[in-house]
User: Fold this.
Amino acid sequence: MNAEPEPMRPPLMQIGDIHTYYGKSHVLYGVSLEVGRGEVVGLLGRNGVGKSTTLKAIMGLVRPSQGTVLFEGQSVTHMQSDKLARLGIAYVPEDRRIFRLLTVTENLRTGLDRHGVTDSRKKELLEKIQHYFPVLAERRNQAGGTLSGGEQQMLAIARAMMLEPKIILLDEPTEGLMPRMVSQVRQIVDVLHGEGVAILLVEQNVPLTLEVSQRIYLMEKGTIKHHALASELRVTDAVIHQYLGV
Amino acid sequence: MNARHAVIYWTGFSVILVLLIVAPLVLPEFWRRFLTEILIWGLLAMSSDLLIGYTGMVSFGHSAFFGLGMYGAAAALLTVSPPSLGLAMLYGLGSAAAVAAFVAYFSTRLRDIYFAITTLIFSQIFYVIIFTWTDVTGGENGLNFTRPKLGLPGLGSLPFTSITLHWFVLALVTASYLMLRRVTQSPFGMVLQSIRENEARTRAIGYSVERYKIVAVMLSGLFAGLAGVLYALQNRFAAPDFVFFVVSGEVVIYNVVGGLGTLVGPIVGAGFFLLLREASSRFLTQYYLIPVGIIFIAMVIFLPQGLLGFLRRWLNR
Amino acid sequence: MLIEQILIQTVNGIVTGMILALVASGLTLIFGIMDVVNFAHGEMFMLGAYVGVITYAATGDFWVAFVIATLTIAALGAALYWTTLRPLLGRDSLTTILATFGISLVLQNYALWQFGPVARRIPEPVSGHFTFFYLDYPWYRLIIALMSAAIIGGLWLFLKFGTFGIWIRATMQDRVMAQAMGIPVPMVLTAVFAIGSGMAAASGVLFGPLVGVNHAMGLDWVLKGFIVVVVGGMGSLGGSVAASILISLLEAYASLFVSPAQAVIVSFVVLILTLLFRPTGLFVRTPR
Assistant:
């Protein structure tokens, strides 16, 4: 794990001074952060500070009134989400949002059936999922809606992996999961990191986030208040207490 | 509303009213009747605005209220001799109210698209019944009847002339407007608008949304029925064509073109549309609906708030 | 006598039901995927019939006319969607209903202008009767039912297998997430509108030989189509087929006792009963 930034290359993703509104209410007050190639970056904060909204703004699901999103140096600020997905940004939303009436395999195919993917590569990717998510393999012909909460979370992540993304935006993947599933999520994050996939992880689970991330941003009231290397932070730190009341 | 706003509003209102009173005296016969028709369709559109613009309930069923008002009046004028204005209005409003009660029941159980489609189907049910029950309703050919006299209690009665009929219609439409305005600005009206904005929240606060919706539908239906009665008086015939759902669609068009949620907007919309239709039909013979339709579609896309939409907040203060 | 009449009406009901199913499938697909109540659907039916008339006059071949009409109207549907409905995508449902209503008015009058008020005819491609019990039943009607079934069956297969089918079904369930998965949602919506319009046009051509082709023929069908979509369950292909046949059968039986114009009340009653007791649709197994 190389913590030194490569001097000449720009970070994989850079968002600068993003403002968003919900009706008249000002939600994000100038959020700026960056994620390097293959980095796991955590975004922590209390409920309602705008962490999910930040991910949505990146993914084009919420329109920023101001600010820029750069991906691989290119401006993608107002791009449609399908284009972003094809560029290599995958999104796993807070409520999973798997396609309930499609089977597990069909859910995976929404990411798999892309331009430029050979049949053999598709087979490889499906086998990879079988390996990391044996439960999903078992249930491959079952409708997504019949899966348990934890299984749906796995499916949501697996589906995103089918896009072979360069970065995955993960919104509270461990919310409502049993400890056994939480450690499974943790494992997957490690696997993805090992493959060089960057992750922007929004979480409420502080210990987990501190373990898997290289860097942490702390958010409060719609803006980034603190930024540190994960190795410099501990769960007991005053800073953590201040922004999370943990 | 503050004093200055009141002055401007009422001055504008009076000016327009005076113009409408004087108009029939200077206009040739055709345009006189045209103006009266604009008022009648405007009333129908205004009644629909209460439901669509203020309560947020899209209805394609106003042709049912309109048509039943028309046929109700026809029934009174054909069965009771001598033809009585009061009775015509009573029967007409009664019929419209009956239909409105029926629709009101469904309005509480259905939402959005389902409600819209159901109201459309209701129009068609009545259309089919009226169209096929030839013995009673005259079927395809409709009913013809004579216009009753204007009977003023204590003053005797005199027959309507085209001018006095216009004033009669104007008086009723103006009174309807003022009544509806009162309603929309009252606490009741505020609740209706709150239902339009966010029905779930309104219910959560504690209002019985069902009751408000029922009253809204009844009121809307009554004023639509009144328009039907006036139409019957003006033209002296009733025909199933007016109950066909396309008429409801046209009414909704007047609402949108004029501006939803303004009450006067729909009247302007009706006038705009009817004038456009008249002008097109003179220059383009029968296929005037093609350019008119295209203009309408363009308006829906580019000017969805309607012609008077920009006045909406001002008019509702 | 009555048995014969009931038999004939049963078959008639099924045939009409299959045409209605073809019209309604397109409508339910469009509604399911973009929440648009497409008033102009009836005009796709009508214009399909007219294109059929013209192409038949030029080529003398019914099936060529059938194919050309379907493709032409599918293209028209795509064009209409792209220019008029796509800009309205985020707005409230009233706006789209009105827009499609406006399109319907324009197209109807356009047809009236171009083709005049006198009805045209398309001759049947297959004439003659076959004996059904001791009655003569026209071959062509049977062919209509089979063709409709084939087309709907084809659509079902397309939706179930095939990548595009998955894209359509995913977009129907969660448009935002489908797009976030890289599915080109605008293209999917256009394609669905085209498919729906094409199917309506196909029904129009098939129905052409049974009645005259005129500018107002679409209105009845779009109305019944809406009823079927609601009774069958919005977005449910199987539901709309079942509902189409149910309603058409009931109407066919009813017209033994009342005039056909009055028989339509049956479909209205079915709609009202459905809305009162099973608003998500009669044939929907698990109400969502």
Notes: DSSP finds nine helices and ten strands in chain A. Chain A has a mean pLDDT of 89. Chain A touches chain C at residues 59, 61, 80-82, 84-86, 91, 93, 97, 99-102, 106, 109-111, 113-114, 159, 163 (CB under 8 Å). The longest strand of chain A covers residues 25-35.
